[in-house]
């Protein structure tokens, strides 16, 4: 087994062995489900084995988590923040090794792997401050000697289902806030990145154990769709946060809604960058490369559509095609690599099918458009000239494929930007303040993230992250996203001796 290779020795430092139980249940590691192999996408060789969850494991974990919720809710919010602070410190101590694991198992380049773990650390810091700011409101009452106020209380348990492309960051966006809000967390990581799920959970478990808290405050499962379905159906979980495709997200939402649960959805993106005629072309070209090629086009915020004003079209396309040809493709753990592999063989096959569909719908390949013959799942970053009306442009092809198209006016560019079913991220490059403010206003982009002179990706945790339409409408990380993890009560207190509404009634 390739786990014995020298380059995998670092895994031992973060608690990963050749065969790993994939569930943290009631403070112990155990699993009775099927055994799977986790694969290195750079060479399609086995890294290690993981035992997944069975239905019995799930039920045992949920029963323990339900009991732990009774304990965790009684811990004061600032004390909960202290626990999350310790989780952040434990991650800092393992940043390099953990980041290396993310790159190894997911396939993103090492700086991105380390950056993803850093994002969880940043979320821990954010949540620590938030733990002292879960503030309600005092509302003036129209009745004498009465007071109205809003109270925010924990939901109890939050279910988090994450995707392979950000195997720990999305957990951080949700869990850090859910925990300081007083909720227990049930996490199902992506089935193709179980080692990240295990390593992250070991970090959290060590902190809970050190503080003599029930381990089941944080319950984790490695498994496939059946565990995700169980979470969606479970009435013990008031809120389910799901990250993935729009198709699966819709099914999750329907299942959760049937039991009157709440959903937080982070689904597909089909993000556009608009380059106006007055744009800083050099800045725009660098930004497009970063947004379209990073993580091999497997970010939900990846730039998939490039809309260029007709007067600067050639001025943009020539340097962009040139830099695409200079991108270093290879092992994501090697220094200098800019483009790693797609995550799975299936992803590579979908890339090939996508290129065929692009050609059949009139798309012209300007550069790239083919797989790289190797043991891994490598493909050439691709630029395609195509009509904005082509059906494939409205779909999310999860690969480094960029569609380019011309426009004549700002209004036309906005119309093209808003014409797809998804509504996550968008950006415009211009020096005109009037265009900037129209772009971010009601007659501009219909996305949840609306940028000016920066790429579609690279969102900061201080702002709410999420999108509209087929992207699901959810918001995670900063701003007031914490309110989704709590229930609001409007409370009226009568501190007098009269009941104004009952005046004139004789109660005998």
Automatic annotation (TrEMBL):
The UniProt similarity line reads: Belongs to the aldehyde dehydrogenase family.
- Report the enzyme's class at the first EC level: oxidoreductase
User: What is catalyzed by this enzyme?
Assistant: an aldehyde + NAD(+) + H2O = a carboxylate + NADH + 2 H(+)
Domain named Aldehyde dehydrogenase: residues:
34-489
The active site consists of: 266
Q: Is Kinase among this UniProt entry's keywords?
A: no
The residue stretches assigned to a coiled coil in this entry are none
This chain's protein is named: aldehyde dehydrogenase (NAD(+))
The species is: Capsicum annuum (Capsicum pepper)
């Amino acid at each position: 087994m390739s786990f014995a290779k020298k380059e995998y020795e670092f895994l031992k430092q973060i608690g990963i062995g050749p065969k790993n139980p994939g569930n943290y249940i009631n403070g112990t590691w155990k699993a009775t489900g099927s055994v799977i192999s986790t694969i290195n996408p750079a060479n399609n060789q086995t890294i290690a084995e993981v035992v997944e969850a069975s239905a019995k494991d799930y039920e045992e974990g949920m029963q323990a988590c339900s009991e732990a919720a009774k304990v965790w809710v009684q811990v004061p919010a600032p004390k909960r923040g202290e626990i999350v602070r310790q989780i952040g410190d434990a991650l800092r101590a393992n940043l390099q090794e953990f980041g290396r694991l993310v790159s190894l198992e997911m396939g993103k380049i090492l700086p991105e792997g380390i950056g993803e773990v850093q994002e969880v650390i940043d979320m821990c810091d954010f949540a620590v401050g938030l733990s002292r700011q879960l503030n309600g409101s005092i509302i003036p009452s129209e009745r004498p000697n009465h007071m109205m106020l809003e109270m925010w209380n924990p939901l109890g348990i939050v279910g988090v289902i994450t995707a392979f492309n950000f195997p720990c960051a999305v957990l951080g966006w949700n869990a850090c806030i859910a925990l300081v809000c007083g909720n227990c967390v049930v996490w199902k990581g992506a089935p193709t990145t179980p080692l990240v799920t295990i390593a992250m959970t070991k970090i959290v478990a060590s902190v809970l154990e050190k503080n003599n808290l029930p381990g089941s405050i944080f319950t984790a499962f490695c498994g496939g769709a059946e565990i995700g379905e169980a979470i969606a159906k479970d009435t013990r979980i008031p809120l389910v946060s799901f990250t993935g495709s729009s198709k699966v997200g819709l099914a999750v939402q329907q299942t959760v809604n049937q039991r009157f649960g709440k959903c937080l959805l982070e689904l597909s993106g089909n993000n556009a960058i608009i380059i106006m005629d007055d744009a800083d072309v050099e800045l725009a070209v660098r930004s497009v490369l970063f947004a379209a090629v990073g993580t091999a086009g497997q970010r939900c915020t990846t730039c998939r559509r490039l809309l260029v004003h007709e007067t600067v079209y050639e001025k943009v396309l020539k340097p962009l095609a040139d830099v695409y040809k200079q991108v270093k493709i290879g092992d994501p753990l090697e220094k200098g690599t800019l483009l790693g592999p797609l995550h799975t063989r299936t992803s590579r096959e979908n890339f090939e099918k996508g290129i065929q569909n692009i050609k059949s719908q009139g798309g012209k390949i300007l550069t790239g458009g083919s797989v790289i013959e190797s043991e891994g799942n490598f493909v050439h970053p691709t630029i395609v000239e195509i009509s904005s009306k082509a059906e494939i442009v409205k779909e999310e092809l999860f690969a480094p494929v960029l569609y380019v198209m011309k426009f004549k006016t700002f209004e036309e560019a906005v119309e093209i930007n808003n014409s797809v079913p998804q509504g996550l991220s968008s950006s415009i490059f211009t020096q005109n303040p009037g265009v900037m403010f129209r772009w971010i206003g009601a007659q501009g982009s219909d996305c949840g993230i609306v940028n000016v002179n920066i790429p579609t990706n690279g969102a900061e945790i201080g702002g709410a992250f999420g999108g509209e339409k087929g992207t699901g409408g959810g918001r995670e990380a900063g701003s007031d996203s914490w309110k989704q993890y709590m229930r609001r009560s409007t409370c009226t207190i009568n501190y007098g001796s009269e009941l104004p509404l009952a005046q004139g009634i004789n109660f005998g």
